[in-house]
Amino acid sequence: MLGEKLNKKFISLLLSSALLATSLTAKSDDDASIRIEALSKLTKTISTVEKYYVDDIKFKELIDKTISGLMQNLDAHSGFLNEKAFKDMQVQTNGEFGGLGITVGIKDSALTVISPIEDTPADRAGIKAGDIILRIDGNATIGTTIDEAVNKMRGKPKTPITITIVRKGEQKPFDVKIIRDIIKVESVYARMIEKENILYLRITNFDKNVVSKASEFLKKYPKVDGVIMDLRNNPGGLLNQAVGLVDLFVDKGIIVSQKGRDSNENAEYKASSSTTLSRLPLAILVNGGSASASEIVSGAFQDHKRGVVVGENTFGKGSVQVILPIDDTEALRLTIARYYLPSGRTIQAVGVTPDIVVYPGKVPQSENSAFAIKESELKAHLQSELDKIDASAEANKTEAKDDKTIISQKKIDEDLQLKTAIDVVKVLKIKQ
Fold first, then answer.
1. Is 47 a catalytic residue?
2. Which pTM was predicted?
3. What PANTHER family does the database record attribute to this sequence (predicted)?
4. Is 84 a catalytic residue?
């Protein structure tokens, strides 16, 4: 009885608030009556569920589920952050946390890996962009929200988790066991391409250091023949870093604009000649794990005809989310606008189509080169046998370690997309 009385008071209060709100904001009496009728339907539904549902659900939990369902049905990126989710988000933003190292999204109603973050537990376990996560520790993900899924996957470092993957080309789902760890990411690093005067600039995510680190490398290697910017499996990040990165290569024009229902959310971000550092030939590598800020960057270069985009179609996340607090402990993540590229086209659900479509794989070898590789492998085998009896074997091993300042020919031969980007830069250099 007490619950029903409280519920009636709540309904009465809600309707009173609705009457006040509609009297202030409704365009007409018809609008006001429609709003009151809709709110009445909502409160009757909540009351019915509270009274008759098979399980006893506390009133606050019922309201939280109502809000969560509303946000989930708006779009895949909006959501309700309850007290725990809000705290978890602040931990992720402000400090280290134990996790897998993957960015996920909802695509075609399925929990989908946007990209594994380079050199993290998920990456080392072989998780790929486009993988569908069917279960987390045996619990189905159908109908789950992004926040719920992230909360389940995050945990104490060194603790195990098993996720069930559905992958295109595989006949049936399979389990992947991963050990959580502290996620630390090197957002930008540079290498020189072996035997070529080309700078390879790898950007793994758009954190606050991207523009400064990219600038540093461009200044360090000013006399290269061109730049390859690798945005594959880059899930995005800070908008200002994406804009600033493009601004290093483009000297005028719109980089990206955002447009929302509220004109106050509309904005244009433009390039400035004063911040331009490089006019070198440029190739940009993307794939299905390139999302959000990565799509803004690659799409802007494409529209400005400033670089050639190589690889596979990108993920297609071109919307703007903000965190709007409800109170001190809870908040809404709400989509308020969409991004538009310089040409006016949208990224959302479409992505960026490369100028040159190249699927991942090894570089095809001719018979002569294949023989050379086999011969090289034989030599390596014989050398390893000699090392077993050679007193200086340890010194030889030290010398054989990978040089982290270059991309070796072996790595290029295993990466057809990268090899294509190298060829693109060489052609652009000739045309200059």
1. no
2. 0.76
3. CARBOXY-TERMINAL PROCESSING PROTEASE CTPA, TAIL-SPECIFIC PROTEASE
4. no
